[in-house]
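Quick note —
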Amino acid sequence: MPKGESQEPVFLRIGAAARLLGVSISTLRRLEKSGRLAEYGVRVYYTPTRRRRYKQSEIIEALERSAQR
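Predicted structure written out below.
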């Protein structure tokens, strides 16, 4: 990618985000509700129709930080 151009973020549906994290969809919902997901730097974005979306880059960064511990 040429310097100066920004790449659009990739948003994942809950199923894809859960697979990437290696957890079930219900576990991902529980982590969100308890605030644990935010502790790892993963925000939940909602569409206008209230569907959950997760930024792929945030999940990957959280997994990388977790692997370094």
